[in-house]
Design a protein that fits this description.
methyltransferase activity, 7 strands, methyltransferase, 211 residues, alpha/beta, SAM_O-MeTrfase, SAM-dependent_MTases_sf
Length: 211
């Protein structure tokens, strides 16, 4: 069944809800204008993120790694009517375009877009989070997890992307980057503060529920 990954992806996208016009635009423009468009969450994973957010109905969301804002807007679909989503990215070159996408959405007033180092910005954001999505520098994923786990509400979700690392986590002799991903996965598997599972979606999505 998995021999033709592109065909499977097409099938999955046909059997879930469609992208709205703004998400289609972001998808298209990302592939036209960015050198690494594969960093975009994309249609199917976007629907997964939106579904998880809708189940949690968060009042406060934190996203580390905005890129072009696709996943941000998917997560925002689940926001409480008075909820706030903080998203952080270090690439100031994308700021004007991405802010334009947010302003064009119905969530413009609820999204707080921060540019800078997440490690420095996170402590300036008050309160706990009902949902956290980590999709940035893979070498710092465990650092971000430890920084944030005590700020995730009981029953809240912490999501970490790219935890299968294109299947390289199964290599006999992994490189240093892959070893960081393996270390993260093995550490989280033993952490009693969370319920956990990896969804084999695209490059792997770790879903952790705070006890």
């Amino acid at each position: 069944m998995l021999e033709n990954e592109d065909a499977l992806t097409t099938y999955l996208e046909k059997t879930c809800d469609t992208e709205n016009e703004l998400l289609k635009r972001i998808n298209r423009e990302t592939y036209l204008r960015e050198t690494m468009p594969h960093m975009l969450s994309g249609h199917f994973q976007g629907r997964v993120l939106a579904m998880l957010a809708k189940l949690v109905k968060p009042k406060s969301v934190l996203e580390i790694g905005t890129f072009t804002g696709y996943a941000t807007l998917c997560l925002a679909e689940g926001l409480d009517s008075k909820g706030v989503l903080h998203t952080i990215d270090i690439n100031e070159e994308l700021e004007e375009r991405v802010q334009g996408y947010f302003d064009a959405s119905r969530f413009g007033e609820q999204i707080k877009y921060h540019i800078g180092d997440a490690a420095e910005i996170i402590p300036t954001i008050a309160g706990d989070f009902d949902l956290v999505f980590i999709d940035a520098d893979k070498k710092r994923n465990l650092y971000y997890f430890e920084m944030l786990i005590d700020r995730v509400s009981s029953g809240g979700l912490l999501l970490i992307d790219n935890v299968l690392w294109k299947g390289r986590v199964l290599m006999d002799n992994p490189d240093s980057q892959t070893r960081k991903v393996i270390e993260l996965n093995e550490t989280l598997a033993k952490d009693s503060r969370v319920e956990k599972l990896i969804l084999p979606i695209r490059d792997g999505l770790f879903v952790l529920r705070r006890k």
